[in-house]
Amino acid sequence: MRRMAAVAAVAAVTLGLAACSSGGDDEATSTSTGTEAGSGGDVEVFTWWAAGSEKLGLDALVGVFETQHPEYTFVNGAVAGGAGSAAKDLLQSRLQANDPPDTFQAHAGKELTDYIDAGQLEDVSALYDDYDLTDVFPPTLLDLLTVDGMIYSIPSNIHRSNMVWANPAVLTEAGLDPAATYDSIEAWFPALDAVQATGKTALSVATTWTQVNLLETILMSDLGPESYNGLWDGTTDWSSTEVTAALTDFEKLMSYTNTDRDGLDWPEATQLVIDGGAAFNVMGDWAVAAFEEQDKVAGTDYIYFPVPGSADLFGFLADSFTLPVGAPNPDGAKAWLDTVGSLEGQTAFNQAKGSIPARTDADPADFSEYQQSAIKAYAQDTIVPSLAHGAAASITVLTAISDATSKFTTGASDLATYQSELAAAAGS
Prior knowledge:
Pfam families: SBP_bac_1. This is Probable sugar-binding periplasmic protein. Keywords: Signal, Transport. One of its GO terms (cellular component) is cell envelope. It comes from Pengzhenrongella frigida. This protein is an alpha/beta fold. The protein has two domains: 2-158 and 319-372, Periplasmic binding protein-like II (D-Maltodextrin-Binding Protein, domain 2, 3-Layer(aba) Sandwich), CATH 3.40.190.10; 160-315 and 383-426, Periplasmic binding protein-like II (D-Maltodextrin-Binding Protein, domain 2, 3-Layer(aba) Sandwich). 47% of the residues lie in helices and 12% in strands. It is built from 17 helices and 14 strands. It has helices spanning 2-20, 52-68, 85-96, 113-117, 125-130, 139-145, 168-173, 185-197, 208-233, 241-254, 266-274, 287-293, 330-341, 343-353, 369-380, 395-409, 415-426; strands at residues 41-46, 72-76, 103-107, 146-147, 150-151, 154-155, 159-160, 163-166, 201-204, 278-282, 303-306, 313-317, 319-321, 382-385. It has a five-stranded mixed β-sheet, with helices on one face. A four-stranded mixed β-sheet has the order 9-10-8-11. A three-stranded mixed β-sheet has the order 7-12-14, with helices on both faces. Helix 1 packs parallel to helix 2 (52-68) and helix 2 (52-68) packs antiparallel against helix 14. The longest helix is centred in the middle third of the chain and has 26 residues, at 208-233. The chain is globular, with a radius of gyration of 21 Å.
């Protein structure tokens, strides 16, 4: 595949450049535009990119880092766990024990609020000038990153959360048109019914965080951008009838899902679609890498489209990196942040991971068919923040919403209780 070939080419160039720079200390200087070569040493980078396309992306980024900053040694602090839940728990323990890594991955946006309020992050706004990032990151992204006039992270990518991935063969077997994209959640239900009638899973989903990802896309679709954003700024009443209607749609969608969902993570739910055991899967666009890694061809082996009713919305999230207060090697962390924000770093990373660069000067021709469509959508669609991935709400709020969702989808609460618990969570 072209994307994987590009990743291999980047890796080969990286290895060649690294070998050329290993001749002696006088050659170990930074090729960065912003950071002079520091004292070197280990740089512990804490992420949840431990497998699959996420690990491929991290490896590609490390290759660029080692080329740009050969005086530093990358130390992989990756912790496996869906959507970073295990990593976040361990990270919080380390931060509270005053044992931070040199830098850690977080979702850009409100997820950083808890760290900022706890005084655990340094303001990195000055690095945006040092690395000339203000001119290459779009203003909408800079607005989402800014908290009280300061920026606390540098994003490595942009992902879209509100995407449907489908198996056209399963749709054809159910008598459906694989080219249909549906105008609303309500218009989608007959197609789900048709698949369910064949005995196959209509909509695959996995553990709680993937269910919250599904929930957010239904809220986006049914409420529209203004009312959806109002859920997070207090202008939309969580107890309103319009929210009740959206939650009713969510409840019905969950009735089409696989019964083993709580024991799976997103790769297994996506694999159900790849293998033909399920028709549809709602997942962020990191899922495209799962299809491409198995040599599946878009339009033939799988199709994709925005969640019905959200075609003109872009569910925004971004992986970003921080500078923790008390980082053992702050110069090394800044060197890593330099690579994360660089054109070379973002191109290599996103070619492997399936996301798109945060930078506007990246060449779309360097990326896959899906990524080119996402680049176009990000430029023209209405940007709305993801709940499940840290852009819309703090970790505290997300945790409470996740707990309420788990209770609801496992039958421990009814719709009215769920809605009241969501309202309480959003106000926490």
